[in-house]
Every structure is written in C-alpha cells, then in structure tokens.
Protein 1
Amino acid sequence: MAEAAGAAEAAPVLRGLPDEIVVCEILARLVPKAVLRCRAVCPAWRRATSTRRFLLAHHGRQPTLPLLCGFNHLGDIDDRSVDITPLDHRAGLTTADQLQSVARVGPVYWFFRVEASCDDLLVLSINCMGLCICNPATRQYAPLLLLYGIQPLGMYLHSPTSEYRLLLNSQHLNAQDGYYVFTLSSQPPRHLGCPHGQAPMKGTGSVLSGSLHWWMGQLIMIFNTTAETFRRENI
C-alpha cells in the first residue's frame, strides 16, 4: 500500500512532459480562475498548484495591483460585510474585469489592514481583531480562527519543513506571556516564551537574510526563522 501511495505521489502532472515545463511554463500562465478550476481535475494537479514553487512562478506573472476595501451595507447589520478587491487598471479591461473580489469577510466587518506577507500571501487583520490569510493571485482566502486577539509580528517560510508560519505576540489576558509560532493549519499556536529581560516587540519585523529584524533603540532584535530562536545585536 505504501509503495502504491508513493508511486501515485510521484506520478507526473501531465504524461509525456516534464513537471518543470507543465508547472512553471503552462500552469503558471493561467489566469486565477483557471488555476482554481485545474485544481479540481485530479489530486496530482492540486498538489502541483499548491507548492511554493508554483505560487512563486504564478505570482511572478501577475501584475502589481492596489487593494480596495468595499463595504456592503445592504440588509440587516448581521449581513454586512467587506469585499477585498484588487483594482486591475490595465488598459482594455471592462469594469467587471477590473474589479474582481478576492475575499468577502463578515458579518459586521468594517475595515482590514495588511499585517504581514510572504511570497505574496497576505495576512489581514479584520477590525484589528480577527485574522485571515489571503492569496490575491488565486482569489482565495481563509479565516485564521485560532488567532483571535493575537498580534502578528511577521510571516515566514520555515525552510526545514517548507511550511508558512506566523510569529505572534499574544494580547489575551489569559495567555502565557511571550511569543508564539503558528503554522497555517488547524493546530493551536506553539508557545516560544520571551527573551530574558527584553521589552515586548511591536510591529512587523523586516526580513533580511532569512531572519526577522526589529530596531529597538540601542539594539536590534533578530528572530532566526529556521531555528525559531531570538538573539540580540547591539548597535
């Protein structure tokens, strides 16, 4: 059974062509709606279009667009929501094609803010409380229900596992002090603790050489995204 599963996983995306050509030269050129449709063809196509290599190749072919926030006020207050919509201002597009919502969040959500990003994936805060992950290129998003009341400090790719993770600072009164790591899955955040004698960090860290950095007056705080440890450097 294990051998059969391994053979199925190793099966080419499209028989007769190398996966490198299929993924990076064919599938990566599809428009977002076509990418979503091809994911429903078979498990092999879904796996191929869910890898970091594909995401980077596909995102690299997408235009840089501003994000708009649209409010839906129709109906009762419980039905109100916010649309997150890129404005595709390229010439030759109809109005309907220029404004294609990538996410609708609600109810009673009034505004959003980009808290962190990695490989063109966006972490959005809704009303400064709830969080969601959004892929504007493929028009997909998902709420991060386990992270209510937690402040993101950065998003990164954990190279040993190829998982996207968030570094968090808890704002819950009942939570343990310090920082947490959250893998984009259904598992609860993992407690890291707090560097000894260090004031709390605020804001999203700047990425440099695979680590997150925060300027804190007389020193720079550094988070190694591979070992998931902190260190300090004096200025």
Protein 2
Amino acid sequence: RHLARTYFGNGINFGDRFVEVLAATQTPGETGKNWFQGTADAVRQFIWVFEDAKNRNIENVAILCGDHLYRMDYMDFIQSHIDRDADITISCAAVG
C-alpha cells in the first residue's frame, strides 16, 4: 500500500511502465514451512514473474529490496542501463 501511494499517488506517469510489489509469503504444506532464505531465493521462487514478463515483451526488470526503494533515485540508473544496452546492471552501496 505504501509503495502504491508513493509511486502512483504522486502524479508520476510511468507510461507503459509499472511497479509490481511481490511480498514474501508462506504457503500451506511442506513447502510453506519456511520464508524466503534471502533475496536470491525470493527471486528464484518468483521466477514465474520473469517468464510472464518475457512473454509480454517486457525488456527491463528491476529487482529491489523494500528498503532500497526509498534510498535511491532509479531514473538515472535505469537510463544508464538502457543507454549502454546492458544485459544486467547491479547497484550496491557501502554498509556501515
């Protein structure tokens, strides 16, 4: 809800772009006994989203942890990725 308000409630027009929030969940049964075991595991478990994006000809996907959304302006980052015709672009920040 907070992300939707931040990105859609402030008048920003994404054109054909969008933000989709995928929250960590537990499912019934044996496979649902554990939460994601980190960001990479969350990406692995949501791999179907990337297949769906590929089928809809979505060219760029940003994978972000929730706390990163408010700490970085992604406009220049994504534009740089596009300008360089990169296959993958990784952002990191010093911790501490």
